[in-house]
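Reading is simple: each integer encodes one residue's backbone shape. An example follows:

___
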Amino acid sequence: MGIAIIPVIPFVIAALMPLAGQLALSKNTRVWLLAAANALLFTGALAFLPDVTAQGFVELVIPWVPQLNLNLTFYLDGLGLIFVLIVTGIGAAITLYAGYYFDTEAEMNRFYRLLFAFSGAMLLLVLSGNLLLLFVAWELTSIISFMLIGFKGAKEADARFGALQALMITGGGGLALLAGVILLGTAAGSFELSSILANETLTEHPWYLAFTSLILVGCFTKSAQFPFHFWLPGAMSAPSPASAFLHSATMVKAGIYLAARLYPALANTPFWTDTLTFFGIATVVVGAVLALRQRDLKGLLAYSTISMLGTFIALIGQPESEGLKAAYVGILAHALYKATLFLVAGAIDHAAHTRIIDKLGGLARQMPGWAVIATICGLSMAGIPPLFGYVGKEVYLEAMLHHPQQLVVMSLVIAGAALTTTVALIFIWDVFFKRPAAPVDVHLPERGLGVGPGMLA
């Protein structure tokens, strides 16, 4: 039952959160205990590494409706383990941050309830060994993210609109995914992931273009690929810890995960390579160009996130697994530095009561610790050695060198990389080191707010 417990525990914590106020524990104690719960899940998942390394994957099958041959199947391999560690590890840091971010305990408890429910749904998604179970988890992430994006919807119209827009786009993509999953499972003769991944004939099936196209629509809407990219900046009305978790580390990478997950069964065809490369590179350029026009810190980070998501889709599109290693390295690096930068943006908003870049500047003197964290993560985003983002960018460039249309693709890739570097330098220089146009009144946040971002940096 080991693998199955991992997604269950966050749901249990979410269900028990309404009772948190009845415990004779201080707020700080509760915050650290909840962060420790994520840390324990991280450690528990890491304990499967020897088995995954030795066997390739670990699978658990629980009979559900035997008459219909339906099972609750849990499947953990290297790809799944990367995402489980991202969800639980970054989740621990964000849990700590959220404990010092919200002004009232009522808000904090409500946020934790949604945060742990979303974590459970995301863990269920990446551990699902059955496509129908995966679809259920996929829709759960859309519904709970709607609640997190609209967390302040009772007070802010932007939050309500952003949440509804995200739900409509990702929900519509979910319907396409459901149709694709049903066709794929029917063509493969099974909805079990292990059977589908072992099937080497799916690319020759008459329905290949149909189920692959439908599944990719689901992936593209979830991961904000062009032309569905516009919902992600609209979701920036979410609280900063929610933005850091959903829009850099977890939800927006669900589409990336699914494309990578089905790579062995559906890839290495001209349709797969051309489609993912075209939409991925288009998203890279569109996201990076639009990021430079943003004067809101979270808007800047949102559009640069779109650009990186396009990078991962383009890498997964490369034939003969050329881009997979680069995609996995990049996913981990991006989750670490981008989640941290979203948390830094939240701290700045908390301290200066604004996220508008033109109203900020010179914060390094007043917030030196935050300046160090932002500089480390910003330089990692820019691809400066010896930081992890440098490794991600190098393997990315190396992987794209193998593309048949090398000159065109590499020109766009390098342009996107240069624009991303510019975005990172804007975040560092304009906010922390440039002389402000007018004095910035800063009220320093609690020290505890910096523990989570500091760990990630």
In short: The two ends are 34 Å apart (CA to CA).
